[in-house]
């Protein structure tokens, strides 16, 4: 019996999917795909490393200097190679073991693999037909199991505490970077690590991807906090907005519109619905209110091992959402030179609709009055 049952279950699921899609070989580089499937996350540099999976075999092309460290995470066979020998013979042996020597094989390539790794593999095959991982590993990763749900949930509860702490710590004269430090300390106390953090004061929030800096908090200033941690291999992601002082009518109006857009998208998110329909539900609310030109990005992105992964919730996505999909719903309105409001939830699709991970209300946080 394998010492790595989770990886074995995922490998079996991949082989079933390969049979359904007529795939002869899956090739993964040192990426989140490899980590998800095998638990192995080797150092990625110029030395070729890949995991090949066929119906009868799964094994690694592995630089010899990384083999001992990687062995702790898998019982799959290694085809090691040394710097003074090069990877050619080891790759040929791996392809032979994988029964991947025929002509016209259907090969799935890791889209995040280094180009030189991918070309080395393709050059070693005979007229392969290649595509990326969307309908194999990518599809399997998109449907989260209960273990993944629990990991993502735990990360979000830590995130809730950190964001509450950040709002509570706000004082006049604090810089955006000061708030990042408050959040990092909260994560550390709960055993998590910072994944990313965007703190936006005032006009900074008018840019969807503002990098926190020296801007200092003043009275009557909008505040946007978009942050996430990583715990046990899985991230969190959430955006909350508030006001330090007395919110004016314009801010209250925009906040209310964005909240309605979130509610509309959450209500639209169900198994069997296209991702574009969820995007449209949010976008229609904002457009009807006269701010369509200020909603500058898609409604959401998938979340799993990676903070951004499929499915993407965009206007041009025909992806049909399925039970177990995890993704963000984060409409926003950005008024350059004034402020921005974005409210974000990460949801998992259940049979009856979307379940939100965060337990922190989206209510406007008003402080410092």
Description:
This protein has 369 residues and is an alpha+beta fold. 35% of the residues lie in helices and 24% in strands. The chain contains ten helices and 18 strands. The chain has a six-stranded mixed β-sheet with strand order 4-3-2-1-5-6. Strands 7, 8, 9, 10 and 18 form a five-stranded mixed β-sheet that branches. A three-stranded antiparallel β-sheet has the order 13-16-17. Helix 7 packs across helix 8 and helix 9 packs antiparallel against helix 10. The radius of gyration is 23 Å and the shape is elongated. 46% of the residues are buried.
Number of strands: 18
User: Percent of residues in helical segments?
Assistant: 25-40%
| The CATH top-level class label of the largest domain | Alpha Beta
How is the quaternary structure best described?
single chain
Structural class: alpha+beta
* Element pattern in H and E: HEHEEHEHEHEHHHEEEEHHEEEEEEEE
Number of domains: 2
- Could you give a short account of the major beta sheet? 6 strands, mixed
Cα Rg: 23 Å
Strand order of the largest sheet: 4-3-2-1-5-6
If classified by CATH, what would the architecture of the largest domain be? Alpha-Beta Complex
Low-confidence stretches: none
State the shape. elongated
Tell me the β content: 15-25%
